[in-house]
């Protein structure tokens, strides 16, 4: 005990406070910690309470997916039934079509939503005048702040056959929104229209950090405009691209509920029923709570798996990762 | 209108004194660069038009005579100027109720968001606070893994949040994304010397946060305040799932039900004469007006906050 205590004293006989503190019994350490850090804890406490209550308690409620729902027991559920509800989902006729629709809608959004902002950022970065640059940025960010309800209303207006801005190009008859095969492309393109400018900001930020001497050096070597983009700009934003791609992979099955829900109608349902809307119909509208939880959990797990895999691959390939 | 930078224009400025071959090469390059320049200008103009025109169209259509809108005469400016749509929108009490509700939810919600998020972000930015790594992990984890819709619904039910205004305010009190952005800001933009000085002057950590950090953080407060504000304002999901009373529905849900009612009007208008046509036109007019009226507040605050965007997102980009 004494030799251990001596380790906190250096050769001059001076006590190292940090080393000495480590020798204290745990409860004294705790008291010391509270005394020094109570203000830090006080500042994070509200956020911790909210996250614990509204994120971790529902996570605890995931067990409902493996239990029969009993109204009196709420979140914790009743009898343990194992994978019954998962099996029910996998064997249901809705499984294949909802999975397919979800993948189709989200994968296209992911790919377009990944590439388009990069191109836009490279384009905007080519503008010399700061005024014009600012103007283009202001314009392209704007749609990001419009609500989903309004965007879908605009889609309805523009795609109205005969009279709509786009609808009249496609002739008469039914609206494109009623076509199950057209729903996914409409979703991708409208998402791109809405968020492309906003998502380009992050690349523009990265591009603003390009070392100007690189341009000079490349020009000396006879690089043209396109080559400057290809060999200077693009490599600069590559790490940012990879990180964003990984983060987007984490939401590969997270098709925005609101938008699909608002776009759905009886006609396009075969192409627009996705996991989140199906969960809502099963769980909330027809009160099959356990079944709904199971579908939701399945969705989360797939997303999480994609995130982990993307992160792992990127760690291997480019040494960039988010954790 | 668009000026492209002179970054590559060097070939015009000095002629190569070395060899003819080289200078010819340079001339060719500048030709192809010119072509690229033109393509870039065209692409940028195209982007601006594609983004802006749909919004502009909604605006001019809302002021136009609907027969002219549906016959395609309205393209650049309003035709047959009228305010009929707006008059009807403003006479609709549902809109006003929705407006009032949304303003209440948005103001209270955003205030709570900031009061909860900023202190937590600050505490998590302090290097000497060792548990911050674990806490940050616990926060970030919720971004990627969540209980899902049904457990949330049941929890809200048990807490008595269903069909209550608090469901708009409490559950979304912390957005982890905004928390991370704010934390990065505190880490990178507030010099640590200030903390030392404040300590010497006898300020506690909370005192330092309130009196030194907050006054220096207007940029980040504006940015995440805007994110939260927009999130509340545009929220349709909460009203759809957790609220049953029409009198408590926020603006977006009111908007949707008005649009939907108009659509069913449209469908039922198959066999009808003048009257149905007129009704249809009124419905269209309302549609445009209501879209604009509900988006107006955002468009009004947008220019004022716009200068902070780049700053804010850049901070988010530097996350650790």
TrEMBL record, chain A:
Subcellular location: Cell membrane
Pfam family, one: BPD_transp_1
Keywords: Cell membrane, Membrane, Transmembrane, Transmembrane helix, Transport
Record field: transmembrane: 37-57, 105-127, 139-159, 236-257, 289-313
Any one cellular-component term (Gene Ontology): plasma membrane
Protein's membrane topology: Multi-pass membrane protein
Family statement drawn from the similarity comment of this UniProt entry: Belongs to the binding-protein-dependent transport system permease family.
Stated name of the protein: Raffinose transporter permease
Organism: Bifidobacterium tsurumiense
From TrEMBL, chain B:
SUPFAM superfamilies for the chain: MetI-like (SSF161098)
Membrane topology designation: Multi-pass membrane protein
InterPro entries for the chain: MetI-like, MetI-like_sf
GO biological process: transmembrane transport
GO cellular component: plasma membrane
MF GO annotations: hydrolase activity
Residues annotated as transmembrane: 35-59, 103-122, 134-154, 166-186, 206-230, 286-305
PROSITE patterns for this protein: ABC_TM1
Main location: membrane
The entry's keywords: Cell membrane, Hydrolase, Membrane, Transmembrane, Transmembrane helix, Transport
Source species of the chain: Bifidobacterium tsurumiense
Family note: Belongs to the binding-protein-dependent transport system permease family.
Protein name (database record): Glycosyl hydrolase family 43
Cell compartments where the protein resides: Cell membrane
């Amino acid at each position: 005990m004494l030799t251990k205590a001596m380790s906190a004293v250096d050769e001059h006989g001076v006590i190292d406070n940090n080393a000495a503190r480590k020798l204290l019994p745990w409860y004294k350490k705790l008291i010391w910690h509270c005394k020094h850090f109570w203000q830090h804890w006080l500042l994070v406490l509200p956020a911790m309470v909210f996250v614990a209550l509204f994120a971790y308690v529902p996570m605890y409620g995931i067990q409902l997916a493996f239990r029969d729902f009993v109204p009196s027991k709420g979140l914790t559920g009743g009898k343990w039934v194992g994978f019954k509800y998962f099996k029910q989902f996998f064997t249901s006729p809705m499984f294949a079509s909802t999975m397919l629709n979800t993948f189709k809608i989200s994968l296209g959004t992911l790919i377009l939503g990944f590439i388009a902002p990069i191109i836009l950022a490279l384009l905007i970065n080519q503008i010399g005048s700061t005024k014009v640059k600012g103007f283009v940025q202001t314009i392209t960010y704007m749609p990001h702040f419009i609500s989903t309800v309004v965007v879908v209303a605009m889609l309805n207006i523009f795609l109205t056959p005969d009279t709509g801005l786009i609808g009249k190009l496609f002739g008469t008859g039914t609206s494109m929104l009623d076509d199950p095969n057209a729903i996914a492309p409409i979703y991708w393109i409208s998402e791109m229209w809405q968020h492309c400018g906003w998502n380009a900001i992050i690349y523009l930020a990265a591009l603003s950090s390009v070392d100007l001497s690189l341009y000079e050096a490349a020009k000396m070597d006879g690089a043209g405009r396109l080559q400057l983009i290809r060999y200077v700009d693009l490599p600069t934003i590559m790490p940012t691209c990879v990180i964003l791609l990984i983060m987007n992979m984490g939401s590969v099955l997270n098709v925005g509920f609101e938008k699909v829900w608002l776009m759905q109608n009886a006609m396009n349902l075969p192409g627009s029923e996705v996991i989140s809307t199906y969960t809502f119909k099963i769980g909330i509208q027809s009160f099959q709570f356990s079944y709904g939880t199971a579908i939701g959990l399945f969705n989360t797990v797939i997303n999480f798996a994609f995130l982990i895999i993307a992160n792992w691959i990127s760690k291997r390939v480019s040494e960039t990762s988010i954790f | 209108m668009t000026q492209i930078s002179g970054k590559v224009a060097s070939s015009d400025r000095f002629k190569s004194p070395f060899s003819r071959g080289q200078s010819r090469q340079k001339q060719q390059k500048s030709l192809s660069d010119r072509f690229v320049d033109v393509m870039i200008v065209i692409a940028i103009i195209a982007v601006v038009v594609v983004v802006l025109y749909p919004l502009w169209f909604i605006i001019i259509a809302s002021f136009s005579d609907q027969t002219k809108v549906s016959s395609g005469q309205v393209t650049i400016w309003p035709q047959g100027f009228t305010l009929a749509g707006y008059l009807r929108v403003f006479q609709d009490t549902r809109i006003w109720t929705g407006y009032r509700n949304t303003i209440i939810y948005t103001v209270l919600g955003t205030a709570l968001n900031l009061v909860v998020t900023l202190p937590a972000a600050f505490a998590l930015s302090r290097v000497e606070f060792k548990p911050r790594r674990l806490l940050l992990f616990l926060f970030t984890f919720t971004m990627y893994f969540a209980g899902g819709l049904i457990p949330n619904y049941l929890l809200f039910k048990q807490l008595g949040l269903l069909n209550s205004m608090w469901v708009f305010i409490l559950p979304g009190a912390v957005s982890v994304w905004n928390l991370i952005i704010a934390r990065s800001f505190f880490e990178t933009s507030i010099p640590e010397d200030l903390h030392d000085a404040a300590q010497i002057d006898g300020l506690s950590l909370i005192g330092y946060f309130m009196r030194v950090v907050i006054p220096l953080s207007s940029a980040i407060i504006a940015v995440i305040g805007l994110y939260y504000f927009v999130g509340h304002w545009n929220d349709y999901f909460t009203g759809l799932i957790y609220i049953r009373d029409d009198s408590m529905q926020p603006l977006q849900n009111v908007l949707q039900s008005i649009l939907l009612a108009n659509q069913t009007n449209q469908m039922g208008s198959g066999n009808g004469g003048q009257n149905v046509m007129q009704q249809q036109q009124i419905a269209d007019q309302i549609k445009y007006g209501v879209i604009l009226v509900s988006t107006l507040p955002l468009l009004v605050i947008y220019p004022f906050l716009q200068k902070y965007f780049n700053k804010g997102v850049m901070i988010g980009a530097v996350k650790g």
